[in-house]
């Protein structure tokens, strides 16, 4: 768990009590914030540097929400790994590594620092940008679609068990099958000719020698295993998940996408 401490009344408002942190790199970023790394960076007012950032979310002594972007990606990655193992880790980026402190949080948090006022946006100063706020994930749209794809990737075994091989088939170009799925597969193939922005195709570890692919595009998301099938989600079809069987072309498409995908270090 992230370590926080109670604040005394005389503590300054610029002291940050860390609640959580996330990575913002071409290979790893909160999908809810955008389809690719440059889009997420633009939403936060950051330059899309290849090395990426760590985002530290916390409160100052007055309870105000702040998001600190640091260049020390390794430090943030170590903290996240420790917290995931149930260990304490004092995440304190050095001042020289801090790029910017942004008001608000880009992600919804259900925790708060004890001993200080409840989380709230800081009082705006003249010329300040609007505080960050989580995307509206209540209604179906890009944020919900990407969250759905992330959930399938995390719960692959459960989702895969719901699909029998004979119930799915690869949507070949020109066939009278689902038009939206055909469009997704065509656009994914287009990435092999005209590579998309960094982070739009991401690859992570899966069972054995397989890889899990997360591929996004305008209005769609795809999650797949390189040794198995794929699932497609569309903005135009709320809550619908379309399985795509391997067929003669999907294995080659997935292998090629994996070849150009961003991978965690």
Main attributes?
6 helices, 25% helix, alpha+beta
In words, what does this structure look like?
Residues 113-143 are annotated as: Disordered. Residues 120-129 have a biased composition (Basic and acidic residues). By secondary structure, the chain is an alpha+beta fold. It folds into two domains: 1-135, no CATH class; 142-260, no CATH class. The chain is built from six helices and nine strands; from the N terminus they run βαββαβαααβββββα. It has a five-stranded antiparallel β-sheet with strand order 5-6-7-8-9, sandwiched between helices. Strands 1-2-3-4 form a four-stranded antiparallel β-sheet. β6 and β7 form a beta hairpin. α5 crosses α6 (250-260).
Q: Give the distance, in angstroms, between the N- and C-terminal Cα atoms.
A: 23 Å
Q: Output the helix-strand order.
A: EHEEHEHHHEEEEEH
- Total strand count, please? 9
Mean pLDDT comes to 89
Largest sheet: 5 strands, antiparallel
Look at the helices and sheets and give the structural class: alpha+beta
Poorly predicted ranges: 1-13
| Amount of helix | 10-25%
The coarse overall form would be elongated
Tally of contiguous helical segments: 6
Q: Which range does the strand content fall in?
A: 15-25%
Question: Nutshell version of this structure?
Answer:
The chain has 265 residues and is of the alpha+beta class. The protein folds into two domains: 135 residues, no CATH class; 119 residues, no CATH class. Helix content is 25%, strand content 20%.
Question: What secondary-structure arrangement, pairings included, does this model have?
Answer:
Layout: E1 17-24, H1 37-44, E2 53-59, E3 65-70, H2 73-84, E4 98-103, H3 142-154, H4 156-161, H5 179-193, E5 201-205, E6 211-217, E7 220-225, E8 230-234, E9 242-244, H6 250-260
Antiparallel strand pairs: 1-2, 2-3, 3-4, 5-6, 6-7, 7-8, 8-9
Biased composition (Basic and acidic residues): 120-129
Region (Disordered): 113-143
């Amino acid at each position: 768990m992230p370590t926080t401490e109670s604040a005394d009344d005389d503590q300054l408002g610029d002291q940050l009590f860390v609640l959580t942190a996330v990575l913002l790199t071409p290979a790893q970023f909160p999908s809810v914030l955008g389809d690719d790394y440059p889009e997420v960076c633009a939403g936060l007012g950051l330059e899309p540097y290849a090395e990426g950032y760590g985002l530290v979310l916390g409160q100052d002594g007055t309870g105000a929400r702040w998001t600190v972007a640091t260049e020390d990606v390794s430090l943030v990655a170590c903290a996240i790994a420790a917290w995931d193992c149930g260990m304490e880790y004092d995440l304190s980026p050095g001042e020289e590594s801090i790029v910017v402190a942004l008001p608000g949080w880009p992600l919804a948090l259900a925790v708060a620092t004890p001993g200080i006022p409840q989380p709230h946006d800081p009082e705006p100063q003249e010329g300040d940008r609007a505080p960050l706020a989580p995307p509206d994930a209540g209604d179906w749209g890009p944020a919900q679609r990407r969250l759905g794809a992330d959930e399938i990737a995390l719960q692959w075994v459960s989702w895969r068990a719901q699909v029998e091989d004979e119930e799915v088939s690869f949507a070949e170009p020109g066939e009278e099958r689902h038009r939206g799925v055909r469009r997704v597969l065509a656009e994914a193939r287009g990435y092999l000719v005209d590579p998309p922005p960094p982070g739009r195709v991401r690859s992570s570890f899966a069972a054995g020698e397989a890889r899990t692919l997360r591929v996004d595009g305008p209005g769609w998301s795809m999650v797949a295993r390189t040794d198995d099938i794929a699932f497609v989600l569309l903005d135009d079809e709320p809550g619908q998940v379309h399985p795509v069987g391997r067929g003669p072309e999907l294995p080659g498409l997935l292998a090629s996408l994996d070849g150009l995908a961003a991978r965690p270090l």
